[in-house]
Amino acid sequence: MRFTKMHGLGNDFIIFDAPAGGPPDAETFRRLADRYTGIGFDQALMLEPPRRAGTAVYYRIFNADGREVEQCGNGARCIARFLHERSGGASPELVLDSPGGLVQAKIQGSQVSVTMGVPDFSPAALPFEASGEAYVYPLAVGASEVEIGAVSVGNPHAVIRVPSVADAPVGRLGPAIENHARFPKRTNVGFMEVVDRGHIRLRVHERGTGETRACGTGACAAVAVGRRHGLLDENVQVDLPGGRLDIQWKGPGEPIWMTGPAETAFEGEVPT
């Protein structure tokens, strides 16, 4: 299998064309994702022929644990860059298709912008077990209780506001919330520190992967929750361990946009 290794702020992927026999099995993905004995990646992005008119590709996302998921924001930006370069620079604007829906993409120099659609706060969209939609949900985790915001941006996210991301209990709470019984399909977990109305710091425990250097949908989810709580403005700089993303969301009913770099690391070939 030939692949291209790419990353968005250190959130890393392999991108490859779908094999004739379909995707590798979960064990193969886990083996390839291993950072000591495999290639090493957070997600594998498999490209299929378009399924809808006007789209450039249909892509599928497999986490490092081998499970397929709905969406990946930084991955979408890397796919847009990959297709742009493969076309010889002929496609600065693209529409991508995925299990999480359509993604508009724009390439502007070193930066790639994508829209993650309209944030959906309904519990059924994640899914999340709740009696009704609320701005904040109490969640029992072991012997303690935390408060989360919950939103889908093509995939599920729980967002916790913390005083400092440096001290956030990502390693303890991340896996516990990811696998909480109220999230039947598991969830990504963001730990958000609000610096001011145009700036947050964020760490994300990704479903099926663990903490990553950056998470595009996690940045969008954090800004959507922060905006809903009246804490943030329309344009927000999101600082993640791997670098900065710029998120723009005008508000309810509008799509949320993410902008940042997408870079190629290397190309290779591996037996599957």
Report on this model:
Helix content is 16%, strand content 40%. The mean pLDDT is 96. The termini are close together. A hairpin with a 4-residue loop joins β4 (57-63) and β5. The protein is globular, with a radius of gyration of 18 Å. It contains four helices and 18 strands. With 272 residues, the protein is of the alpha+beta class. The chain has an 18-stranded mixed sheet that branches. It folds into two domains: 2-116 and 261-269, Roll (Diaminopimelate Epimerase, Chain A, domain 1); 123-254, Diaminopimelate Epimerase, Chain A, domain 1 (Roll).
CATH topology of the largest domain: Diaminopimelate Epimerase, Chain A, domain 1
Counting H and I runs of at least 4 residues, what is the number of helices?
4
H-E order: EEHEEEHEEEEEEHEEEHEEEE
Instruction: Tell me, briefly, the overall form.
Output: globular
Outline the biggest β-sheet.
Answer: 18 strands, mixed
Number of separate domains: 2
The low-confidence runs, each spanning 5 or more residues with pLDDT under 50, are none
Helix percentage range: 10-25%
Quaternary: single chain
Query: What share of the residues does DSSP label as strand, in percent?
Result: 35-45%
Can you say what the CATH homologous superfamily of the largest domain is?
Diaminopimelate Epimerase, Chain A, domain 1
Give the overall pLDDT as a whole number: 96
Rg result: 18 Å
